[in-house]
Amino acid sequence: MMPLTQLVLASHNAGKLKELQAMLGDAVQVRSVAEFSSEEPHESGLTFIENAILKARHAARVSGLPALADDSGLAVDFLGGAPGIYSARYADGQGDAANNAKLLEALRDVPDDRRGAQFVCALALLQHAEDPLPILCEGLWHGSILHEPRGEQGFGYDPLFWVPERNCSSAELPAIEKNRLSHRARAMAVLKQRLGLA
Asked: Please, are residues 151 and 171 in contact by the beta-carbon 8 Å criterion?
């Protein structure tokens, strides 16, 4: 692996860009794919890893830079891993509140001991668009699903995700704490080790 000085992040999300830049530190400049293209690749993969690779290939192709992509979501044990790769569009693209409402409905009469879940993050780093050997890293954050939302921080399913080691929901954690514990933080820690940045 050549030393990395800059890479393109396969996301138009400014919050995610800032979060990943903070995790990588000053050694690597992270640029957004939005600088190069407004087109979003079609996420046709059936796994988090496949979708991360698809997004990274697209970003590397339009930018000419090494590309990093993440694909993340929530996998609920009782629902066989759903919403999984469809987490962001679980309620047909109607947003976080609708996604959370649909999840609560799906788990309406499910007892606490069967509400286990994990946030999943798959990262793919490609040197270039045709890279046959992407670096793949995964992070899991284990918890369970509450019966009602709690907390005002975060986004997505954070208000429903119970973090047992902190005795609160993900949406009740300060951002700095969440960025140390989260699935994305865990996957990034593995990536930094692989890149010799840890």
From this structure: yes
Residues of each annotated binding site for substrate: 11-16, 72, 155-158, 178, 183-184
- Counting runs of H as helices and runs of E as strands, what totals does the chain give? 5, 7
Helical axes 183-195 vs 14-24, angle rounded to 10°: 50
Question: Which residue, chain included where needed, has tokens 């890893």?
Answer: 49
How far apart (Å, rounded) are the C-alpha atoms in residues 106 and 167? 24
Question: Which residues have a catalytic role annotated?
Answer: 71
Which residue has tokens 């509400």?
115
Q: pLDDT tens for residues 14-31?
A: 778 887 888 888 888 999
β-bridge partners, 186: none
Q: Annotated binding site: which residue ranges?
A: 11-16, 71-72, 155-158, 178, 183-184
pTM: 0.91
Q: Which residues are annotated as a binding site for Mg(2+)?
A: 71
Residue 165 Cα distances to 67, 141, 177, 181, angstroms: 33, 11, 12, 10
